[in-house]
Amino acid sequence: MRTVLRRPDFRLLFGGLLASMTAESILLLALAIWVKDLTGSNGLAGGTIFAVVAPMTLAPLVGWFVDRCPRRPFFVAANMVTAVLLTPLFTVADAGDVWIVYLVAALYGLSSITLGAALSGLIRELVPVELLAEANGVLQTVRQGMRLIGPLAGAALYAALGGWALAGIGMVGFLTAAAVVAALPTPQQVPPTMRLRWPAELGAGLRHLAGEPALRRALLGYGLGSLVMGFSESLIFAYVDQGLNRDAAFVGVLVTVQGVGGLLGGLCSPALVRRLGEVGTLAAGVAFFSPAALVLAYPDLRLAFAAVLLAGVSLPLTMVGLHTLIQRRTPPALVGRVAAATQAVVSGPQALSIGAGALLVGFLDYRVLFTLVGVATLAAGSYLWRGRHLSAPPGTRPPTPPTRPTLPAPRRPVEDSDRPVTTGTRRTPRG
């Protein structure tokens, strides 16, 4: 990772993203806590997360718009607009203003899709292909680190200063990101647009995902795993309550251990991409979730720490493998649409899985559900592993056999029968 951090342009981008990722990690949980305080309803608080996820349905339109703009100026403008979108939070006073929080959450979710699509294209332009895994690994490591401190910091700041202060801190983070990325010295060019009518351009990202074998297998395998991995969001509370006989607050301890695993996974992910390829790294990330889920089917505190640590390692491996595969296997003019379409395809099963898990945990034993998660993720990881050859690392690709030079054919003596007959120049003897 030190190689990519030696690049001045990436260091500037990294500094800007550090500010915006801090704002994101503080805001998400704090908005839900704010709604809980205003209404006293757990359901309405959970609706805040749904409002953030709902704009994923607009991902194809967002990706099409992102691909029609220069990467760096668009990324700068999107961060500035995101800061402005937070300003209505200063008007929230009581439960009657909850709709403002929902509106800001939905606009924030739309902005998150936009920033993610633009960032994929910007990284693809700034970083050489051989350093894409390192760049994505650095960002995932920092993102996992933010999960350790961001939500806790956001909750503490909210308790001490209130929601308005959090809105101000979030605005500062996004404006800082805009200012830092604006200083990038690399000139950005407008990516070439495809000569298609706009309905066809909207679906170009999905068509590329379906037509590229490595991307198609990656999304199918990861989608299968995502259909059950989201169960753990609800199962972990049942595990702590019924299995460990501890208070729900102990979930925070397990989440912290999971964050440590995320840091380890982020640091190891570039090396795994070089060794296994992008699909192989994605397969490892999904498969690592299987033993973690199976271990959690047996309540034991020591095993719990090992399981959540392994689950934490799996997340950055999947993200780095998937993002690097998209950036390497997608033409620059399509990166925004493909990245946005991937977010929509992946987030759909995840949202369905979280909702299904919340319902199933009320009817089935959590140990049965954890076993189901373990078996399904093992099957998804195996499916991905069988397709690892689709994105084999450079060192494992068979060398191209040298071509032998073609020698000219040997010349043979010219026979009389081979001589050309030139009519008009041969004299006919007189009789």
UniProtKB/TrEMBL annotation:
Its main location: membrane. Keywords: Cell membrane, Membrane, Transmembrane, Transmembrane helix. Residues 391-431 are annotated as: Disordered. It comes from Micromonospora parathelypteridis. Residues 420-431 have a biased composition (Low complexity). It is found in: Cell membrane. It holds the Pfam family MFS_1. This is MFS family permease.
